[in-house]
Design brief:
Length: 95
């Protein structure tokens, strides 16, 4: 099991646009083989901050996700909508 978290910050005033794009992306990712969970959370006190929780059966499923057309389209659509790079952390499930 591979778990990934990402902290992302939308550019000022772009939070609603980012949220909409995530809402369109999530159902597609959940259909990808090996995806166990893919959940997006928006910070309650700062609407420009997002927390992404991703869980995959294995590293191959994560690699597949990164190569899908819907994920690539999301990357294109969000170009310029984020303030800086995401903070990504990988975890291995232990219990």
């Amino acid at each position: 099991m591979v778990v990934l978290t990402a902290m992302l910050t939308a550019a000022d005033g772009k939070g609603d646009e980012v949220e909409k794009l995530f809402q369109d992306l999530v159902p597609k990712v959940l259909k990808d083989p090996g995806t166990v969970n893919y959940a997006i959370h928006r910070n309650a006190s700062d609407p420009n901050k997002f927390f992404v929780y991703e869980c995959y059966e294995n590293r191959e499923a994560l690699t597949y996700h990164g190569q899908t057309e819907h994920f690539k389209a999301f990357g294109q659509a969000t170009r310029g909508l984020f303030a800086g790079r995401p903070e990504i952390t990988f975890y291995n499930k232990v219990a």
